[in-house]
Specification:
By secondary structure, this protein is α/β, with parallel strands linked by helices. The protein has two domains: about 210 residues, HUPs (Rossmann fold), CATH 3.40.50.620; about 70 residues, no CATH class. The chain has nine helices and ten strands. An eight-stranded mixed sheet has the order 5-4-3-2-1-6-8-7. Strands 9-10 form a two-stranded antiparallel ribbon. α1 packs across α2 and α6 packs antiparallel against α7. The longest helix is centred in the first third of the chain and has 19 residues. It starts with a helix and ends with a helix.
């Protein structure tokens, strides 16, 4: 097997281990390149069918094309698609775009709090009805004990401290010092009752690996990743008020791979266009310790 095939095999194994050992499992889909590769791997792991719900945390400020892409793939691939929102914060305009709080507080409200309360079932969830094509209130309020995420260790400093199977306490807080070791591809998949587990099958992948795999498998991606007109493209996707494109002439997957291989982006961090990272001192650890993805 070549390097990409080895990464794929390990990720598929971890996804299957999670499904076999963790009850009430779901997968977080941010609509970005990493989580879409993760979704592709899940479909491969179960022969075209994804046997658990896909969860999207909708801040109401995502770039519109991202939502259109989400719903198109959800329909085409027959995904059990669910989204959650912080309706109270949006109603009261407790957001950064409304000018009432800073970016970090906004991320906490619209992402962290929403993620925690969507997973535990305390807040309303909205589920895609494949017959009507519309989202309806999800009748189930069961909590999800485990969530599969598409984070990578090389993407951002705090994520390099993660494990493949990462336990959270009852409040979904991340206690870095209490993570179990993972030697020789041996993973802890049994946890105390009430433990929330996050699973990271892409932990060893790099940004270059992701794009090479997208090329190899012809994985569909949002066109925002490519330079369409003005010599700029998005390298990382998020809310339109806090996510900015980078200077790049890459118009397709091959040209992005060339940028990464030739070092054209060596002085530009992958998440350099994410303003909340800068406000958090250049990292996400503050947010991630309290439950952020």
């Amino acid at each position: 097997m070549d390097h990409l095939e080895k990464l794929e095999s390990k990720s598929v194994f971890i996804i299957r281990e999670a499904y076999a050992n963790i009850k009430n499992l779901c997968m977080l889909w941010s609509i970005g390149k990493d989580s879409t590769v993760l979704l592709w791997l899940a479909r491969k792991a179960f022969f075209g069918h994804v046997p658990f719900p896909l969860i999207h945390i909708d801040t109401n400020f995502k770039i519109p094309e991202m939502i259109e892409y989400r719903d198109r793939l959800a329909r085409d691939w027959k995904l059990n698609m669910i989204y959650g929102q912080n309706e109270e914060a949006l109603k009261n305009k407790e957001t950064y775009p409304d000018g009432n709080i800073d970016r970090i507080s906004c991320c906490n409200k619209l992402k962290t709090e929403t993620l925690i309360n969507t997973l535990n079932g305390n807040w309303k969830r909205f589920k895609l009805n494949h017959i009507t094509g519309q989202y309806e209130i999800d009748r189930s309020s069961d909590s999800y004990n485990g969530v599969i995420l598409g984070i990578r260790a090389d993407e951002e400093g705090s994520r390099s401290k993660e494990r493949y199977f990462s336990a959270r306490n009852l409040e979904s807080n991340w206690e870095i010092e209490n993570q179990p070791p993972e030697f020789w591809n041996q993973y802890k998949t049994e946890f105390a009752e009430g433990t929330h587990v996050r699973i990271h099958p892409l932990l060893d992948w790099t940004e270059l690996n992701i794009w090479e795999y997208i090329k190899k498998e012809n994985v569909p991606t949002v066109s925002l990743y490519y330079n369409n007109v003005n010599g700029k493209r998005y390298r990382s996707l998020g809310c339109y008020t806090c996510t900015f494109p980078i200077a790049s002439n890459a118009k397709n997957v091959d040209e992005i791979i060339c940028e990464l291989k030739t070092g054209q982006l060596k002085n530009t961090a992958e998440r350099s266009g994410r303003a909340q990272d800068i406000e958090d001192g250049g990292g996400l650890e503050t947010l991630r310790r309290s439950g952020y993805m």
